[in-house]
Structure formats: structure tokens, C-alpha cells
Design brief:
163 residues, alpha+beta
């Protein structure tokens, strides 16, 4: 692979958060215009909250020959080189489902440490993981990663998901 592939961490959540933040800003302006400052402040606070969510979910994950780069627009947050990576895996976000095949949203994770089942459970339980890079799963994204990661890909709470 010669050219790096860039992905948005979670495109759907990014889009919804961005639209919600924009609508709340519009509503706050409308509330100011009709002299309702408290309501306007509530909408501004909500817009800020959704802006932060959009910023996180819109962060870029770059997969290249060197490793995995995670950056929030304009700021490089973390880099893991392929030779420093100990584990790559897929996990489902829904831990406590009665149906094992309903794993929730699947994510790809990149870790600098090999993990046990208990550590994977804790990673999903304490969302979002602070010391790992994550990326929403898609077949295209996984195919790109498999070209560069020759070792086993772990799965945790992923239902019937198999490679």
C-alpha cells in the first residue's frame, strides 16, 4: 500500500452530532431574538456538548505503512507504529445483551499491549478506551488493515463475526 487511507472514526455519529450542534446554534439565535436568554443558553450548552461529540467521532484515523495515526482536526493525538503494536482486534460495543449475536456496533482496536479477556472487557466497559486507537468496523477498513497486519486479529464480544 503506497498511499495512506484516511477514515473518520465513526461517520454516522459524527454527522448526527454535527447536524444537532448546528440546529441547536440556530435555535439559540432564535431564542435570543425573541428575548429568551435562559433558553438560548440551554441551546448553546447543548450545541457545545454535541460539538465535542462531533469532534471526537469526526477524528481521523490514518492507516499507512508506518502505522496508525489518530488525529483530531489539525492535532496529532497518537501514533502507534506497526512494530510497536501488540494486538489488533474487533469488539462489539454492547456488553450486556441477552442475545450473543447482538454485539452492537463493531469497532477495530489497536493496542500496544497484548490483552486478556478481562482487559478486553474493561476496555469496552470504560468507553472510550484512553490508551488505544479505535475505528468503527467496515469490511473495507478491515481489508486495508489486514494487508498491513500479518498476525492474528482478536475478537471480543463480536457475536458470529469471523474473518
Amino acid at each position: 500500500m503506497t498511499q495512506p487511507n484516511r477514515y473518520i472514526l465513526h461517520p454516522f455519529k459524527f454527522t448526527v452530532s454535527l447536524i444537532t450542534a448546528a440546529l441547536c446554534l440556530v435555535l439559540s439565535v432564535c431564542e435570543f431574538l425573541i428575548s429568551r436568554p435562559f433558553s438560548a443558553a440551554v441551546f448553546i450548552g447543548t450545541a457545545l456538548l454535541f460539538s465535542l461529540t462531533a469532534l471526537y467521532n469526526g477524528s481521523r484515523i490514518t492507516v499507512c505503512n508506518d502505522g496508525i495515526h489518530w488525529s483530531v482536526p489539525g492535532i496529532k493525538r497518537r501514533f502507534i507504529p506497526w512494530d510497536g503494536m501488540k494486538e489488533v482486534g474487533v469488539f462489539g460495543s454492547r456488553l450486556f445483551s441477552a442475545n450473543k449475536n447482538r454485539a452492537g456496533t463493531l469497532y477495530i482496536y489497536f493496542s500496544t499491549q497484548a490483552m486478556t479477556e478481562e482487559e478486553r472487557f474493561q476496555m469496552v466497559l470504560h468507553w472510550p478506551p484512553k490508551d488505544k486507537i479505535i475505528l468503527q468496523y467496515s469490511k473495507e477498513r478491515m481489508d486495508t488493515i489486514q494487508l498491513l497486519w500479518s498476525r492474528e486479529i482478536q475478537t471480543y464480544n463480536a457475536g458470529d463475526f469471523h474473518f
